[in-house]
Amino acid sequence: MGDETTGTEAVVYADCVHCGESTEYPESVKGSTLCPVCEWHEAQRTACSG
Description:
Elements: E1 13-15, E2 22-26, H1 36-48
Antiparallel strand pairs: 1-2
């Protein structure tokens, strides 16, 4: 009786490619995944280049 499943799977989140922290993206997402902090830094870097 104790091993019942609710039909929901645990989501495994991908690690940030820069710092290794957990991201908001599941591992199934393709491409480079960034945590919120590194994502913000990347946006700042690309916005100010030029």
